[in-house]
Amino acid sequence: MREMTLSILKPDAVRRNITGAINSYFEKAGLSIVAQKRIKLPYEQAEAFYAVHKERPFFQSLCKSISSGPVVVQVLSGDGVIALNRKIMGATDPANADHGTIRKDFALSIEENSVHGSDSPENAAKEIQFFFSEIEIIP
Ligand code: GDP
Question: Distance between CA 71 and CA 119 in Å, rounded?
């Protein structure tokens, strides 16, 4: 089933100028980037985006990290793209990520792990809406 998911190339990736390298992982897997923009998330917006994690001990550090510099937010489209993107990204902690995944190849740490990807259809819909209006998404 054709789906859409929200992807973020995090500040550690933008800072190291590897957004093109990461995009090639999506494109090689047959996913399409149907919306994309570079933004800087204010800290309060980061808190809103990561609200589900607000009880976790690393919440403040995570919000500080994602708002520390520009990010590239994007909508990816394809068959089963939500699960497929999670597979291409690899495990949260790069130490546990499979070979050939984005996080294995690029992540700096469990926190600065280069990419975000929605984990369910419900969250994908919410997260896409958080960053994009309908006219910005060109399937
Ligand atoms: P994801 O879905 O693989 O991104 O992982 P989670 O939803 O569990 O966590 C969201 C984000 O919080 C991760 O991508 C990391 O940037 C960060 N994070 C997760 N676990 C930890 C942790 O144990 N310590 C720190 N500092 N950050 C973490």
Answer: 19
Averaged over 17-37, what is the pLDDT?
A: 98
SS3 category, 119: coil
Ligand 1, atom 28, residue with closest C-alpha: 111
Tokens found for residue 38: 């570079």
Instruction: Kindly indicate the confidence band of residue 1, based on its pLDDT and cuts at 50, 70 and 90.
Output: confident
33 burial level (CB within 10 Å; 0-12, 13-18, 19+): middle
Query: Which of 52, 92, 109 has most ligand 1 atoms within 8 Å of CB, for mutation?
Result: 92
Predicted TM-score (pTM) of this structure: 0.98
Is residue 53 flagged as an active site residue? no
Determine the straight-line distance between the first and last CA of the chain, rounded to whole angstroms: 14
Q: Find the length of the chain.
A: 139
